[in-house]
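Lab meeting minutes (informal)
Scribe: AK
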Amino acid sequence: MNERYDAVIIGGGHNGLVAAALLAKAGKRVLVLEKRQTLGGSAATEEIFPGFKVNTGAEDAGLFRPELVEALALERHGLRFVEGPAVAFAPRLDGPGLTLWRDPTRTQAELAERISPKEAASYHRFTQLVARMTQVLDRAMLQTPPNPKEFDPRELLPWAMTGLKLRQLGKRDMMEFLRILPMSVREFLDEWFQDPFLKGLLATAGVAGTMQGPYAAGTAYLFLYHHLGGGQGVRAGRFVQGGVGQLSVALASAATLHGATIRLGAGVARIRTSYGQVTGVVLEDGEEIPARAVLSSADPRRTLFDLLGPQELEPRVMRRVRNIRFRGSTAKVNLALRGLPRFHGQESPEQLTGHIVISPSMEYLERAYDDAKYGRPSQEPALDVVIPTLLDPTLAPEGAHILSATVQYAPYALAEGSWDEGREELGDRVVALLARYAPELPDLVLHRQVLTPLDLEREYGLTEGSIYHGQMDLDQQLFMRPIPGYGQYAMPVGNLFLCGAGAHPGGGITGAPGFNAAREVLQALR
């Protein structure tokens, strides 16, 4: 019989590794089991083309919690962040492009020149408001949501500081915060700006990764969420030297330093229980590993249905798990290029050091969504493009570059055909759209990888290709994430915990679900 671990963690993505490092640091005996041969989950860096290290999934680590960098001394484990001067650049077919710079003064000057002084002044006030609003959300990131059914003052005490932060906004801003959260990003931006091109660029933050258009209620909340960590009311736009997978490498190094064990190529077949209590896991090869607690960084449906089994759940809980909305909406096209493309409206390569956004208006975004809601990939999708080799040339051979485009919208469930049949057609569509803005790009392509929502499900275990482990709508947040009654990381079976993006606060490379789950596990194992 194998020796019993205090905690077995399913999945070697960044959240699972955060939990592993913190539990090991607290003196617990920890084992991480990762099915793939690469750490990072859907935020991995892989050499899929010879000489090119590609971020096959997520790119931007701007949301990763600075508290975790400090608590785990990740810089000592090789973690380095890199930032370019540009946050976002929107190329334009009929004139100069529009750049949002990390330096707000530079952005204001560009908006005044390219649009109008009035729009520039509005942008300044807008970013100040966003910075104040995100301070409130920021307080909630590393807290366990209270259970409204069980009034426990100990659960509410940490939230008192969040409430205090809200009160500190002042009565006017506090009411404004509560008014904005359920709004659509279209309504939010329309209150501040006139220029359609600027609004199209900004609105992408409200729909990224979700099957919602900019006219949908609650997308203003997602807009604010994506601006956490920016500090000045702009998106943080921060990348990892060596590729985003190096974040997981640093976390794994910290975890092993404190005594955790990490096994690659070790897929979990099921979670074992006895009398309503976790007893360990069984691997795909039949090996049984006993554990006092099991933490899963897989999404809630995969955890509770595929690994635990619906027979372990009450019918009411089973229905709620079945009703979680996943609705994957994004695809990824990764290109290896022989050189750097030039975009229409571009004046300098430094404009390309952040996100390159193809979304010329909110109406364009809504039309792209109209296709997807009827089960069709967008005929003219919105694209969020990064060229990481501009800031980190080590990712590609000398003179070569990597271009990665996140495609919005690509519905998981197609009305006609299959993704296996339509994968390369989507890749052709994306390259053709990029060629309208960067005409020389097709001649620069050496290699291409297309990842559809179905590929994200197959390769990374993301149910329906949902990069957030479930839609981040307001009714699937806080104590209702993943389902009402189980928003505190502990699942319906004793000592089973959720530590991935399917738990509060949700998706993105934050590390917050792993941090919060580790705290709850330590309480349970006292």
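Next up, CB showed the second protein from the same session:
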Amino acid sequence: MSERATRALDVAIVGGGLAGNLLARQLRRRSSELRIGLFERSSESSYKVGEATVEIAANYLIRKQGLTQYLYENHLPKNGLRYFFDQPGRDCSLEQMSEIGTVGFPFHPAFQIDRARLEADLLQMNRTDGIEVETEASVSRVELGESGAMHRFRVTRGQHSTDREARWIIDAAGRAGLFARLAELREPEPTHQIGSVWGRFEGVTDIDALGSDAFRDRVRHTSRRLSTIHFWYPGYWIWFIPLRGGITSIGVTGEPVAGSREMRTPDGFREFLESHRAARELIRDAKIVDIGSYTKISYGTRRFFHPDRWALIGEAATSADPLYSPGSDFIALENDYVTDLICRDSSGESDDDELRERCELYDEFMRFRHEATMLLYRNLYSTHGSFELARMKWDFDIGFYYNLWVSSYMRDQHLDAEFLASQLRLKPFVLQAMQNFSSLFQRVADHLRERDDYYRTNTGEFYYGLTNIDFTEEVGTDRDEQQVMEKTLEIFNCVRAQALVMLGEADRTDEVEPLPLSGFIGRRELA
């Protein structure tokens, strides 16, 4: 049975997962007048990966969502990233492994979130805040309006269907890609072909209870358990993420997953984990609760936001790689942009031409961010597994993230049209520099393998992750473009100097002559 509904919405959000729920809440916090509908196919939230947040997402949850107290009361604080390294036989104990990580909690809060709990709680918050929330609601027959026309869609619950209209419609329905199919937006990832398998475990051994006093001394007795723990191997990595209630999320991401059906079964997954001594120590008494997998993780989109007042957010738009947890960062950026566009439109602050111009600007910047993020992964999984190489790449990846992306987000520069225009002018140079460093990392990995030195420092070493990232107190402060560029150049030269020493082209890093910025942004070899 179908009936024609006359009640139109200002905003219809298709999908009640993390992205959709957070957008609904953000819109309501910005405007009490908007008529917002959120339509979710499922009746209850289910376990999902993507539990670890990093600085942009955490700042968004605290500052834009007002969830500080909620997060500390219902989820776990995160003690940074932590990497462990093994030998080819995968037979090192935790204490033997070289390690990169923190010696105390980070400069900005971050969290390990139970996605099912958070999404269920957000749904209830949104209901309480007057948002029309419909669960067990399937959306179909979407007709995207053009040139200011209303969007039309059908909502079906059981045997009952209702035709609805909305001025704005947002696809937050996940990887299925409602608009991606409708408007042919999905772009397959041509190079980065990896998969992932994961599960929730009960009874995982507390890493903080293992090892000697010396093992705990080297991290100043901070909690390793609250870190997002990574075990690094050529072609793949294993994660351990603690959640409230005694649950630990464990997963494997990389090339082996995409090609192994057995590995995506509970028995095959556990067998793979137990083939690594360190992981085996941690899951010895653990019981697997459930399991999930993707054979292909990465994809892009031809458009995030459209001037005809529709958008894609979360995994409805893109998916990069779980390493560095970029998914929730992208949700933060996308939701900020959609909220800004909708509020400008509803308040009459922007006419159609101004809205179109800003929409195109935001869209181009998000496509730039996706491409820059993918350059952290493409062709680089083969470089995983070497402590000294990962230490160098850490300095590049984390330093670049804090300097270029985090600092500007905390000051809302990503919503300033002039700032975005200046960033987009730098786009070709940023992407070229990242490609140059990608080639350099691959060259170092090949050199270490040829000399049989790839694993030479994988035992007995500890590297404090902020050793060469000495500007965290400046992150989020008023820094002009020149200061950002000077720090960028410093990071580039620091990493290049480390690479030249590993390549045998210099004896010490302080003997390497620094390059000017122009030396990094052209098409050239860095060594």
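CB comment: Residues 129 and 470 are 42 Å apart (CA to CA).
No objections, moving on.
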